[in-house]
Amino acid sequence: MKHLPRIVLVVITLILLYGTALLVFVDPNIGLELDRHYLLNDTLRFGRGFLWGAATSAYQVEGNCTNSNWWEFESAVDKQGLPRIERGQRSGIAADHWRRYKEDVQLLKEMRLNAYRFSVEWSKIEPEEGIFADSALDHYERVVDELRANGIEPFITLHHFTNPLWFERKGGFERDDSPEILARFARRVAGRLGPKVRFWATVNEPNVYAAEGYYSGTFPPGKQNPARAILVFRNLLRAHTACYLAIKEADPEAQVGLPISVFIIDPAEKWNLLDVLLAHYLNKAYTVSAVEYLTTGVYDLSLPGIGTDHYESGIPDAFDFVGLNYYSRIYCHFKPFAEEKFVAVAPPLTAMQADNGWEIYKEGLIRALYMISSRTGKPIYITENGIADDSDQKRATFIEDHVLTANRAIFERMNVRGYFYWSLMDNFEWTHGFDKRFGLYAVDYATQKRTVRQGSLKYKEIVMTWARRLR
Ligand code: FCB
Asked: pTM here?
């Protein structure tokens, strides 16, 4: 060693440091590959009470949500004067689910599903601040009764992206008192439906709501302000806790959880330490922070160069389950000298993709489940997983691969209790309008006719095999 020139020693030390940093920060599961044949030959491990469902959200399927912030957003334009929704589409009567819910319950039954995740539209139930419309609550009670009468477990989301106009105009979730405002609504809904509904998801994807509405500005209110995004994320997590307490007060037996969107964020270049560090920080900020908030009551967000926040609710462990919405992964690349410091990079050309460009990546599901499971140990419901696939060429394999990956996770001792395919039927996919088709059932919007997609029958087949094994 003594004879090595100093420069060589420095280089060796730097290489060692670089390598160690890579090892510390890279997700050890990054290269995981699950063999499809192995998955297919595995025993099914889903338990007796496993929930097999499909999901929707009120705004996307019901129609006529005229009093909502999204309704207003649909007719707005962005800074370039372009319509907010692709091709200037409007949600209108959407899939007319408000009137056709009975028919739609039969679609669930036809698929042999035993659970339905849907949301209640806040703007219909509380059209003016503090004034509740009994007629809207009556409607949702009828939906719940219809589900129960058909042996289907209702799984209700309280808040799925949309706000009443009065709330949006007051400042929405930028307001410090927003958690209490949402909890008042939660109390009312749970007070009414509580005895008939066991599963409650509080706030759908706080991370997506904050990022799209306040960072990229693609969702209402269309702001591009990182500090506001961090604040809104915090308030949505606080809102979760406030709703959790409100629902538990109405029904201590209720199972209340938070659906988090997990997009696996991987470095665009595995050997580029900057990309690796970026992926680490983005995963932490975007998803891990929400999971850790649930267990500890502490919201700790730190994105170097963008912003930090620290908040303690003093109420740890305010959740009975975690909801996982999993679709795909994103590759991120750090650009130290560009104005936009980090960018998402397209998946490799060899990767299979959905119609919206999302990479089909089943291993991401088990990575996401592991991330949650290792931090909480609580039951996990896969509250959304699905594919935009108009030609229906990929749906069957997508469903089979993801369900069997969840099966593998159960073998690995992760506490997975349910799987909800997104979506029961085609719907208004936010800024994509009606163009992206996720449905188990295709919707012809001219006639509102629902037709089962052939690929969806794979789901039915899996559920029927599971049911047969239990007998
Ligand atoms: C999720 C949303 C859901 C749907 C799917 C495709 O982020 O929760 O409403 O749009 O994406």
From this structure: 0.97
Task: Tell me the CA end-to-end span of the chain in Å, nearest whole number.
Answer: 71
Q: Which residue has the tokens 């209720």?
A: 254
Residues that are catalytic:
205
One digit per residue, the tens of pLDDT, for the chain of length 471 reads 567 788 898 999 999 999 998 888 999 899 999 999 999 999 999 999 999 999 999 999 999 999 999 999 999 999 899 999 999 999 999 999 999 999 999 999 999 999 999 999 999 999 999 999 999 999 999 999 999 999 999 999 999 999 999 999 999 999 999 999 999 999 999 999 988 999 999 999 999 999 999 999 999 999 999 999 999 999 999 999 999 999 999 999 999 999 999 999 999 999 999 999 999 999 999 999 999 999 999 999 998 888 999 999 999 999 999 999 999 999 999 998 888 888 898 888 889 999 999 999 999 999 999 999 999 999 999 999 999 999 999 999 999 999 999 999 999 999 999 999 999 999 999 999 999 999 999 999 999 999 999 999 999 999 999 999 988
Only one residue has tokens 């926040």, namely 309
Render 451-463 in DSSP notation, one character per residue.
EE-GGGHHHHHHH
Which residue's CA lies nearest to atom 10 of ligand 1?
429
212, 263, 330, 429, best to mutate for ligand 1 pocket (most atoms within 8 Å of CB): 429
CA dist 103 → 150, 425, 450 (Å):
12, 12, 9
Distance 438 CA to ligand 1 centre (A): 10
Q: Closest Cα partner for 246 from 116, 159, 123?
A: 159
Q: Running DSSP on this structure, what letter comes out for residue 359?
A: B
Centroid of ligand 1 to alpha carbon of 8 (angstroms): 53
Integer Cα distance of 123 and 64 in angstroms? 11
Ligand 1: distance of its center to the CA of 43 in Å? 31
Domain 4-326+361-470 has CATH 3.40.50.10330: no
CA dihedral 106, 109, 113, 119 (to 10 degrees): 20
Ligand 1 pocket check for 376: Cβ under 6 Å: no
The one-letter amino acid at 269: E
The residues pairing with 118 across neighbouring beta strands, listed in sequence order, are 156
Tokens linked to 117: 């995740």
Rg (Cα) of the chain, in Å, rounded?
23
Contacts for 338-341: CB closer than 8 Å, 24+ residues apart = 341/305
Instruction: Give the H or E element holding residue 88.
Output: none
